[in-house]
Each structure stands twice: as structure tokens, then as C-alpha cells.
């Protein structure tokens, strides 16, 4: 029988508190700070963890008897040997105020179960897949964009990423520019992924909220593509609460129906981690 506690491969520093049941203790492999609000970290992957690309797990730190856990979309694909996460830093956030200080070799806690609605199996097949994200809401799409299953189901993938300023867009730009050269998935992604990055509080080549850009038609003009249509398209949405509500209303007004694993449909929605 498997022990409920599994240790990653790298050496883990001694932990000050007992580890709760059903929690993996994993090791930080790397950390990259993009801005004073955003950072990326990679951890070892428990051998027993199975998840679908696009799902989230609960992450915590071994710094208290009852650690605080928060939902984090896995940004790496299901086949990856490590787990990648893209996180916000909230100065007084119960988890991220501490999590932002992690360094390679540190321990991170992860509950055993993964779950989530942003999975390709919750959508019926179609020609185009639109991934609409703001801020750290890009994370589940970073996973799905690196999964061959996405390209088996959809011919073209459009990722939109809206942030306050240009530096916050860098993670998404690196992600998409690295896709074509990736030895494992480059052959699936080449010529099939389009990134549309926009800013709302700093000048850039595309400015404005994605909702406004879609409603005005500028989004379609900029990319030279047909309008969103449930007959040909599927939509996945991840970001802040208000953005989810507005984009959901927008796609519903175009005739899209929400899907789930039990009843696959035209679009799915998930809130990005906040705090
Ligand atoms: P804005 O700057 O106009 O608020 P945050 O960093 O606060 O999570 O926001 C990430 C991005 O999401 C920002 O560019 C923000 O634009 C945008 N945003 C916030 N609310 C909405 C919404 N209701 N619809 C579309 N985009 C939104």
C-alpha cells in the first residue's frame, strides 16, 4: 500500500511541523520572478499523481500545524515529470506572502487530489479553441497548450492574455514562443497556436479588456479571423471573478452552452487563484 506521505527526489530540509494526512511533501526545483506581482515555480512531482491537463491542485507550506492551502492550476502538462505553477504575490495573502519567498530545495505541500473544469473532455470537438485569460488565469492554458490531446481535438488554438502592463505578459509570450521548438510537442503546435496579448493600464500593441475588444470586433480584425460561433468554436475562460462573469455572459449571448465532464458543451469557466 502507498504511504499517504510521499517525498520528492531532491533532499528536503527537516520540517518543523507534522505533515497532515493525504498530503505530499514535494521539493522546489526552480523559481522565476517575472514582476513584483507574479512568479513561477516548479516542484518535484509525486509519482502517484495523475491529473488531466488544465486541472488544479491544493498547495500549501509546511510552516504551521494547520497549513493554509490554496487552489493552484497546474501550468505544466500531464506528461511532465515536474509540476509548474504561476502565482500572484499578495503582500498580506495568507499563503502567497510566504510562498513568494520559496527557494530551490524548500518543501511545498500538495494535497493528493486534482480537480477542475478546464479540461478538453468537458468540451465537444470543434475547429477552433479559444482560451481567454487574465493575469495568473493563463496557468491552466499553459498546461493545455503543451498537451497533444488539445491538438487532437482542435485544429486551431487562440490564447488571449490580458494583464495590467506589458511585463505581466512575458510568461505567456515565452510559453507560446517556446512551443514550436519543443522537441516533444513542437510537431503538434506548429502554425496552430495564436497568442493575443493585451494590456489595460500601459500602452502596448493591443490595448483594452478582452471583453471590449471582442464586443467591438477589434479582436477579430486584429487577427483576421471569423467571429466566435458555437458551430465551429469552443471557449475556455480563466481569470478574475468579474472577467469570468462578463466573458460568460458574452459567449452565452452568442449561443454558447456551458459544458462539464458529465455533459460536454461549448464553453467552460474557472476562477484563477487569488490570495
Ligand atoms: P483593468 O486594468 O481594466 O482592471 P488583475 O491584475 O486585477 O487580476 O487584472 C488582470 C486583468 O484583467 C487586467 O488587465 C484587468 O483590467 C482585467 N479585467 C478585470 N476585470 C475584467 C472584466 N470584468 N472583464 C475583462 N477584463 C477584466
The helix tally amounts to: 8
Task: Catalogue the ligands.
Answer: adenosine-2'-5'-diphosphate
Biggest sheet character: 6 strands, antiparallel
* Structural class by secondary-structure content: alpha/beta
Which oligomerization state do the chains in this entry correspond to? single chain
Return the average pLDDT rounded to an integer: 93
For this structure, the CATH topology of the largest domain is Rossmann fold
Determine the N-to-C terminus distance.
Answer: 36 Å
Shape: globular
State the fourth-level CATH superfamily of the largest domain.
Nucleotide-binding domain of ferredoxin-NADP reductase (FNR) module
CATH top level class name of the largest domain: Alpha Beta
Strand content: 25-35%
Number of domains: 2
Low-confidence stretches: 1-7
Helix/strand order: EEEEEHEEHHEHHEHHEHE
Features:
275 residues, alpha/beta, Elongation Factor Tu (Ef-tu), domain 3, Rossmann fold, six-stranded antiparallel β-sheet, five-stranded parallel β-sheet, 20% helix, globular, disordered N terminus, binds adenosine-2'-5'-diphosphate
What does this 3D model show about the protein?
There is one protein chain. By secondary structure, the chain is an alpha/beta fold. The protein folds into two domains: 5-111, Elongation Factor Tu (Ef-tu), domain 3, CATH 2.40.30; 120-269, Rossmann fold, CATH 3.40.50. Helices cover 20% and strands 27% of the residues. The chain has eight helices and eleven strands. The strands form two sheets. The chain has a six-stranded antiparallel β-sheet, with no helix packed on it. A five-stranded parallel β-sheet has the order 9-8-7-10-11, with helices on both faces. Helix 8 (241-253) links the parallel strand 10 (233-239) and strand 11. The longest helix is centred in the C-terminal third of the chain and has 13 residues, at 241-253. Residues 1-7 have low confidence and may be disordered. Bound molecules: adenosine-2'-5'-diphosphate (A2P). Adenosine-2'-5'-diphosphate (A2P) is lined by residues 134-135, 162-164, 200-201, 209-211, 239-240, 242-243, 246. Residues 134-135, 162-164, 200-201, 209-211, 239-240, 242-243, 246 line the site of adenosine-2'-5'-diphosphate (A2P).
Amino acid at each position: 500500500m502507498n504511504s499517504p506521505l510521499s517525498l520528492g527526489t531532491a533532499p528536503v530540509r527537516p520540517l518543523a511541523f507534522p505533515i497532515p494526512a493525504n498530503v505530499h511533501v514535494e521539493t522546489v526545483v526552480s523559481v522565476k520572478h517575472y514582476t513584483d506581482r507574479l512568479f513561477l515555480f516548479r516542484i518535484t512531482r509525486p509519482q502517484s499523481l495523475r491529473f488531466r491537463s488544465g486541472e488544479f491542485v491544493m498547495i500549501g507550506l509546511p510552516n504551521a500545524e494547520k497549513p493554509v492551502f490554496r487552489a493552484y492550476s497546474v501550468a505544466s502538462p500531464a506528461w511532465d515529470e515536474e509540476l509548474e505553477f504561476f502565482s500572484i504575490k499578495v503582500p498580506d495573502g495568507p499563503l502567497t506572502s510566504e510562498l513568494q519567498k520559496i527557494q530551490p530545495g524548500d518543501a511545498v505541500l500538495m494535497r493528493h487530489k486534482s480537480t477542475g473544469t478546464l479540461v478538453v473532455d468537458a468540451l465537444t470537438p470543434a475547429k477552433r479553441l479559444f482560451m481567454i485569460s487574465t493575469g495568473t488565469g493563463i496557468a491552466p492554458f499553459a498546461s493545455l497548450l503543451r498537451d497533444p490531446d488539445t491538438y487532437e481535438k482542435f485544429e486551431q488554438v487562440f490564447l488571449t492574455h490580458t494583464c495590467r502592463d506589458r511585463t505581466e505578459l512575458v510568461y505567456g509570450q515565452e510559453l507560446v514562443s517556446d512551443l514550436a521548438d519543443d522537441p516533444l510537442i513542437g510537431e503538434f503546435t506548429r502554425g496552430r497556436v495564436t497568442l493575443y496579448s493585451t494590456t489595460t493600464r500601459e500602452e502596448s500593441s493591443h490595448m483594452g479588456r478582452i471583453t471590449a475588444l471582442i464586443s467591438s470586433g477589434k479582436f477579430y480584425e486584429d487577427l483576421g479571423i471569423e467571429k466566435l460561433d458555437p458551430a465551429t468554436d469552443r471557449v475556455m475562460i480563466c481569470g478574475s471573478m468579474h472577467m469570468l462573469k462578463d466573458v460568460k455572459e458574452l459567449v452565452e449571448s452568442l449561443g454558447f452552452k456551458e459544458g462539464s465532464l458529465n455533459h460536454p458543451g461549448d464553453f467552460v469557466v474557472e476562477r484563477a487563484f487569488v490570495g
